[in-house]
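The passage that follows is intended for readers who have already worked through the single-chain material. We present the inputs for a multi-component assembly, then the predicted structure in tokenized form, and finally a short commentary. You are encouraged to pause after the input and sketch how you expect the pieces to fit together before reading on.
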Amino acid sequence: MLGLVVVVAVLTTATLGGLLYRSRSGRLTSASAAELPPGLLDGAGEGVTLLHFSSATCGPCRQVRAVCTDLSTAMAGVRHVEIDADEHLDAARELDIWRLPTLLVVDRRGRIAQRAVGVPDRAALSAVVSEVLAA
Amino acid sequence: MSLDPRGPRFSAAITTLLFIVVLLTGSGWLALFQALVFAIGTYDPRRTPWGLIYRYLVAPRLGPPDGREDAAPVRFAQGVGLAFTVVAVAGYLSGATVVGLAASGFALAAAFLNAVFGLCLGCEAYLLIARLRGRTT
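Having made your guess, compare it with the prediction:
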């Protein structure tokens, strides 16, 4: 009987937790326009940089890579830079990156406009990039 | 070593069902069997009974995966599963049923999140630990 209670309680809690995880995963949120650590990105350039923190052991990073490559090809003034978080631990700590993939949308002044943990939706990311480009 | 990412998820689905049965029956012996499965998984997740079922019965019907993933986080996660399951086995077989229930409950939560939502808690822990230690695999 107690076992049944545990099963029901665990499945309910895990479902709620999983739904929360799913709703947050890949969602773009505005960052507080924090500056990047100096030297992390050479030449902020004219447009938007999709700064993608990945690692060799990260599965979903592949999907983020595909979305970013796609957007940087399709949109003018967008570039995709991938950084291995394991090789840039200090930057990852400074930028408060705990989970991979993390994607930072960096504006032309080198400030972080938006960030997403997980795989962002292509359309949502495209809209955000257009906004940051126009800003 | 790299894996078809659907394999561990399939295994997690079977593990979820197994832990539901463990919790409903209080069978320490069934938990012990899953402990052995996890033990094999820490060595090679493809060679566990669930991994073999996936490889020979399920995968051939699915077509090739979109990509493969590194086995290291999965192996670590199997180790975490093993630790919880060993506690569950010890609890049930020694008569400390509450310990068995609690440990099985955690294992069920982790397996369920992996199977249904693709969230592998042990894998996330592995990445975090690797990052904090400042080394790659």
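Commentary: Chain B has a mean pLDDT of 92. The two ends of chain B are 11 Å apart (CA to CA). How closely did your sketch match?
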